[in-house]
Predict the structure.
Amino acid sequence: MGSLNTTAAEMVANARAQVEEIETSDLIAQMDDPDVVIVDIRDPRERERSGFIPGSFHAPRGMIEFWIDPDSPYFKEIFAQDAKFVFHCASGWRSALTVQTINAMGFKAAHLKEGFSTWEKHGGPVEFKVR
């Protein structure tokens, strides 16, 4: 197999240069703001294993474009809110690419720069699903 024209790391760097990035401490400070919606795009297994940000909305990365599009049969009402949407994954790579894509669609959003990986280190609360 030949080499790629663009690496994943280059794609992420390009996306990061084009999207709004939120620092972990800033998002922790905005958690109680009713106009901020935190969207977790990690795999369900990641959320189970590592926990999640209390009050965050889970939207698997593979469905985002369809869930934000009001003309899609998969549209989710939460994305019709007049709010600041902040997407996150584990390290900020997937969320940077996701936000770049949905911004191009016309959906305004930001992403958590370092992802969930530094959330607890910065004093962010973590919740686990009760079984």
Q: What stands out?
A: The chain has one domain: 18-118. The longest strand covers residues 36-40. The mean pLDDT is 95. The longest helix spans residues 93-105.
